[in-house]
Amino acid sequence: MSEWTFIALLLVTAFIFPAIPIVAGTLLGPRKPNEMKNSTYECGVETVGDTWVQFKVQYYIFALVFLVFDIELIFLYPWAVAYNQLPLFGIVAGVVFIITLAEALVYAWRKGALEWL
Amino acid sequence: MLTFSPVSVSFFIMALFTIGGGLGVVTTRNLVHAALFLVLSLFGIAGLYVLLEAPYLAVIQVLVYVGAISILITITVMVTRRLMGIEETYNRQWPIAAIISGLLGAGLIALVVAQFGALTPVADVPVDNIEQLGRAFVTHQGFLLPFEVASVLLLAAMIGSIVISRDV
Q1: Which one, A13, A51, B8, B151, has the greatest CB density within 10 A?
Q2: How many independent structural domains does chain B possess?
Q3: Is residue B101 part of a domain?
């Protein structure tokens, strides 16, 4: 349990650390709003049209490809943890697993599923 | 009964994340916010796995659910038409649904409490449980065949999803 204490501390810090400047800025900062300050991008280009647009359905394939490789991680993570205790046979078995999924990547690549539209 | 130890305080914080995130998912009218609430809820479940001394499940929960499933849902929302400003109530039967799901939830809680009561661990978790799982994945005595079949299954899933999504 003890090593999780550090993660819990990191978690609490991660919440508090950005909260302090935001709260301090709200409490201490002077408030003199004008039109320029209230614009969404004070020193950027104005957006054209509606910001909440519908994206192309083709982008969904990126999420699916990512999901498949993320599921692969479930199996490879324990394999990688046990890596330095495995015999050669175990290493080869893991490599065969990776090669099979590399085929999937090659297929997605050759079919043009990874091309940004 | 109710003692304030670091574990119980962590449990209540994580339970708050899980239930609060779940409530946020079903109450917000903005689909993007609902997806973010879902991430919060799934993250709380990862914390509960840690408290149950299941670190492998916790890591998988963060990597797969918080990482990939939430991205899948976010992109689903992004490709959905009219994701903002749903004002009208689509489902007029929500009171009936609330009663039925409330009864179902109460029944499940009663069943779990009656069946299991206070939870006691059935076995000690070995310290090197992830290493043991990793070794079991790639030995004959373990799960070598399911391990390799899983990669073929993922290959089939990838090819299938590409074929279906490109031929629309």
Answers
A1: B151
A2: 1
A3: no
DSSP-assigned letters across all residues of B17-65? HHHHHHHHHHH-S-HHHHHHHHHHHHHHHHHHHHHTT-HHHHHHIIIII
Find out whether B149 and A93 touch, Cβ atoms under 8 Å.
Answer: no
Chain A environment of B6 (Cβ under 8 Å) = 5
Q: How many A-B residue pairs are in contact by the CB < 8 A criterion?
A: 152
Q: pLDDT tens-digit profile of B106-133?
A: 999 999 888 877 667 777 777 788 888 8
- Interface ipTM: 0.74
Per-residue pLDDT tens over the stretch B89-112:
667 788 898 899 999 999 999 998
* Distance between CA atoms of residues B45 and B66, nearest Å: 10
* Placement of tokens 């990482």 in the chain: B67
**Per-residue pLDDT tens digits for B6-23:** 788 888 989 999 999 999
Alpha carbon of B107: minimum distance to chain A alpha carbons (Å): 33
Structural domain boundaries, residue B76: 6-86+126-166
The pTM score is 0.78
Minimum distance, in Å, between the CA of residue B145 and any CA atom of chain A: 10
Give residue limits of the domains in chain A.
Answer: 3-38, 57-111
